[in-house]
Amino acid sequence: MSDTVTVFLNDVSVQAPAGATIREVAAANGVHIPTFCYDDRLQPYASCFLCVVEVEKARGLLPACSTAVAEGMVIHTDSQKVIIAGRPLWNFFFPTMQETALLRAKLPVRRISIYRAI
Questions:
Q1: Would you call 48 exposed, middle or buried from its count of C-beta atoms within 10 A (0-12, 13-18, 19+)?
Q2: Which domains can be identified in the chain, with CATH numbers?
Q3: Which of 39, 45, 65, 105 is most buried when burial is the number of CB atoms within 10 A of its CB?
Q4: How many C-beta atoms lie closer than 10 Å to residue 24's C-beta?
Q5: Distance CA 103, CA 88 (A)
Q6: Residues 49, 63: contact at Cβ < 8 Å?
Q7: How far apart are CA 73 and CA 4, in angstroms?
Q8: Lowest mean pLDDT among 30-34, 37-41, 78-82
Q9: Could you please report the per-residue DSSP string of 1-48?
Q10: How high is the pLDDT of residue 95?
Q11: Is residue 83 a contact partner of residue 115, using CB atoms and an 8 Å limit?
Q12: pLDDT for res 99
């Protein structure tokens, strides 16, 4: 078994450690995937689904924080499906920009960033 796998992240071929999560591979390659429940000190819980990505041939969108990469996986972080799926979540977690600022101020451990179009 190889120590690395080749995946396609937003149409770019990248090498990734076998067993790494999509979120880890994306971060290592400069691609930001927003998260809310993820904390690198804990095992991935995948409860908020803010980090969903589209993986070709998968039945639905997958949480990037807990999905391990596999050889030949084709991952899209900003597809139309991902953006549309994220809108209700952003509206649920951050109903207004003012509340977002308050949340950010009260949760200094988590880096909450608005990245996707809402």
A1: middle
A2: 4-106 (3.10.20.740)
A3: 65
A4: 18
A5: 18
A6: yes
A7: 13
A8: 37-41
A9: --SEEEEEETTEEEEEETT-BHHHHHHHTT-----SS--TTS-----S
A10: 61
A11: no
A12: 54
Is residue 54 within 8 Å of 47, Cβ to Cβ? no
Model confidence, pTM: 0.75
> Do residues 90 and 114 make contact, with C-beta atoms less than 8 angstroms apart?
yes
Integer Cα distance of 112 and 101 in angstroms = 10
CB 59 within 8 A of CB 42: no
pLDDT digits (tens, 9 = 90+) for 63-92: 999 999 999 999 999 998 988 887 666 666
Q: Distances in Å between the alpha carbon of 38 and those of 4, 26, 35, 44?
A: 24, 14, 6, 6
Give residue 110's pLDDT. Answer: 41
Whose structure tokens read 């796998």? Answer: 5
Using DSSP bridges, classify how beta strands 62-63 and 74-76 pair: parallel, antiparallel or unpaired: unpaired
Q: Which amino acid is at 85?
A: A
